[in-house]
């Protein structure tokens, strides 16, 4: 049984157990999957990954390559929608990690995915402002104030879609008003290609606020931002699926997917403040 097949069996077992067990499920005591034996994979492993995974995947690469000195990870970080389009147009990758299910499904429809996709992490939404917060934004409701320069991503980009879902939820809540989404959209000054560009606009003071993933307030930029939590009733947890793609190094792709779903990969995700598999299936 290959590493990817062992991953699939483990996740299916977790899902079936959760469905059949009343109350929340306990986290697995053993790794969710066993990584490939050290040094057993080689060659270039091309990974297409959502831009919000940049830091954590680069962090993972160090340990993965140390365990597999004959392997080399090559990353293409961009908006998941851009990556799915590239795969559909014939670009070759060994792994695809998306920030939403829609773009993974698009890659599957294009026959660019060679294995089953599996959710490996989730992410919360937050509002960010520049450190000096010139518009005095303290809550989601302030995004609709006159004069606020709001930046987001294209609707096809996962963070853009998650933001729209958040605005829809707010508009359905009398606390915010039915015209809340309309007023925030009217405040939009730019629509970027990916979430890291959205963060950069706020970091540089070119916008007053944005909705991004919690993990995008990285150590490199956190001291230049103010972070405002999005209330649970407005949250849409971002879902990250991963799959082996139809590249030239399927063994390498399977090994990296197994690493991401295993104990070491999940620990790295937790360090970078992602919600991990243990969080998804809490005790």
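^ Assign residues to that structure.
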């Amino acid at each position: 049984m290959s590493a990817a097949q062992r991953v699939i069996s483990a996740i299916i077992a977790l899902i079936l157990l959760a469905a059949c067990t009343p109350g929340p499920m306990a986290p697995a005591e053993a790794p969710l999957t066993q990584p490939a034996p050290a040094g057993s994979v080689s060659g270039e492993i091309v990974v297409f990954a959502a831009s919000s995974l940049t830091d954590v995947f680069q962090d993972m690469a160090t340990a993965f390559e140390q365990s597999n000195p004959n392997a080399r990870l090559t990353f293409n970080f961009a908006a998941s929608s851009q990556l799915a389009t590239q795969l559909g147009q014939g670009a070759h990758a060994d792994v695809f990690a998306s920030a939403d299910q829609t773009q993974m499904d698009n890659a599957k429809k294009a026959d660019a995915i060679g294995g089953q996709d599996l959710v490996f992490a989730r992410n919360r939404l937050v509002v960010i402002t520049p450190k000096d917060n010139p518009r005095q934004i303290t809550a989601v409701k302030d995004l609709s104030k006159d004069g606020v320069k709001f930046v987001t991503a294209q609707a096809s980009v996962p963070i853009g879609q998650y933001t729209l879902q958040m605005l829809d939820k707010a508009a359905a809540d009398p606390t915010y008003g039915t015209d809340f989404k309309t007023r925030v959209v009217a405040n939009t000054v730019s629509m970027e290609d990916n979430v890291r560009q959205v963060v950069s606009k706020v970091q540089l003071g070119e916008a007053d606020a944005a909705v991004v993933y919690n993990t995008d307030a990285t150590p490199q930029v956190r001291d230049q931002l103010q972070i405002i939590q999005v209330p649970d009733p407005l949250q849409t947890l971002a879902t990250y699926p991963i799959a082996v793609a139809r590249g030239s190094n399927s063994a390498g792709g399977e090994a990296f997917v197994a690493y991401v779903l295993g104990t070491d990969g999940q620990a790295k995700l937790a360090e970078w403040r992602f919600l991990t598999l243990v969080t998804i299936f809490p005790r």
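Residues 3-31 have pLDDT under 50 and may be disordered.
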